[in-house]
Write a structure and sequence with these properties.
Blueprint lengths: L8 E6 L6 E6 L5 E6 H5 L6 E2 L1 H23 L4 E13 L4 E13 L4 H14 L1 H5 L5 E7 L1
Parallel strand pairs: 3-4, 6-7
Antiparallel strand pairs: 1-2, 2-3, 5-6
Length: 145
């Protein structure tokens, strides 16, 4: 029987977009609160300040890694390690996320390159975060180390 798990984050914002600032809190995990600002999002990444796009990148790289590791295990070739990056492009002029570039480097014993590439692409398509972001162009570079 399907079971729904809900994860919650919240944001408090003060002021207008350009001069205001805020903070996002990871409510479910209680792992912390991160500061937000337009400057960090659209001009200069400030140390200690995040953006919605960085948070999407974190969610996407984590979800993809989990999906891919499960598919590799089901294939009989569990990974030793997966290092995944998600670069999220935000176009200020159009006001939107225009693309996500996933990149994974994997250490896996006993897998053929063709099977690795096939499973990497299938994981990209079936990852729940990829599905949620289906309106955005998502590319993948997968490398066996």
């Amino acid at each position: 029987m399907p079971r729904t798990v809900t994860s919650t984050a919240s944001t408090a914002w003060k002021g207008d977009l350009l001069s205001g600032s805020g903070s996002t809190t990871l409510e479910t995990s209680q792992l912390g609160t991160m500061d937000l600002s337009w400057k960090a999002r659209a001009e200069d990444a400030e140390q200690g300040t995040t953006s919605p796009e960085e948070l999407i990148g974190a969610a996407h790289s984590a979800c993809y890694s989990m999906q891919f590791s499960n598919m590799l295990a089901e294939n009989g070739t569990p990974p030793t390690s997966l290092d995944t990056t998600a670069d999220v492009d935000f176009n200020i002029g159009e006001g939107g996320i225009t693309g996500i570039r996933l990149s994974v480097t994997a250490r896996i014993d006993g897998i053929e390159e063709a099977d690795f590439q096939r499973l990497a692409e299938e994981a990209k398509s079936s990852c729940p975060v990829s599905k949620a972001l289906a309106g955005v162009d998502i590319t993948l570079t997968a490398t066996l180390a």
